[in-house]
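User: What would this chain look like folded?
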Amino acid sequence: MSEAPPTDQELSDFRATCRAFLDEHATGISLSEPDPRDHATIAQNKAFQGLLADAGLAGLTYPKEYGGAGLTKAHEAIWREEYSKYPDMTTQLTISHGMCLPMLSEYGTEEQKETYVADNIAARTVWCQMFSEPGAGSDVASLQTRADLDGDEWIINGQKVWTTLAHVCDYGIVIARTDHEVPKHAGISMFIVDMHDPAIEIRPIHQIDGGMHFNEVFFTDLRIPKDNLLGPLHEGWRLATAMLMYERVAIGTGSTGGINTPHSKRLIEHARKNGRLDEPVLRQKLMKLHCEETAKSLISMRTRAELKAGKTPGPGGSLGKLHGSKILRDVRSLANELVGMETDAWMEGDRGQWWGRLILGSFQAGIAGGTDEIQKNIIGDRVLGLPREPSVDKGVPFKELRVGTQKEI
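Assistant: Here's the prediction, encoded as structure tokens.
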């Protein structure tokens, strides 16, 4: 028998609890100096998440036996509504909580859940995702990182790239090739790895905006227990697809709920301070951006409603992801127009510094989590029902393909 849904009074009391907690703790991320490797930011994220866990507000819909709060989707919706009114205190936990945690919960064994889920929820451990490779970006199924079974252990060799926050993560979810005799999508499996293992080398990637939160990751004879296989053997592509759907939901909907228009609010306030808010053309551009952000919020709310109904994320998550990329293109243009040359030439501490870094960092929105072109293909194929693009390697064993650096197996 299912439990009775929460009463209106219970939900009202919960909303008050959320507000009280956020009033006290959601005061914004404080940085006294630039944080290119995100060490200070992730430390504050973990501290906030730890307080959430102590207050019984972390992992709201996850079972109590795995460290969650054991509450309903209605509670989660209220939390998101309230959290949207405060500074985001978990900016760097999106992958750990929005992608890795649901995968562990949905596909992990009982032992894996007992071992990892509670620490993930409370951010005692932070997780990363390792899919992309130098020769397998948009076409992730062409990956060459391999995992070979040796008795009770898997031996992993290969390279991943663009791994967000790998250098501050405790664990990672990686996909590797476990069968070269079958077509590329069929011979992939998913694994849990300890990022502190000395067989893993992590090298930073220096970004144009001054950040270094992306990394290259190298595996050299990494040995992991046989039980670190996540999900069924050779079904890694199915799991990777599910994880990518979670990723696009996480990126496309964010960690808050309701109507959220942060970029237009900031730009409108900047125009007001500069006495330009009455310019008709500029007002029209700002209103258009406000409408775009509102529409994206509505798409996010619809996606969250589907999750609330118990549905696994589908291709609709690509709509929010693609929409967010378009919004940032508009933000770039408006920021340059409103702030001016200070976005291009600024000294440390100048007002143009924040805007300049936002503009430079915004370009990754059309790449990270799947390029805009990939999102359009997904939407066309799986949402609109348009014909798929031709696949020249369909049914060809992976060992016969010439992908990346592969010459012979």
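DSSP finds eleven helices and eight strands in the chain. If you want, I can go into more detail on any region.
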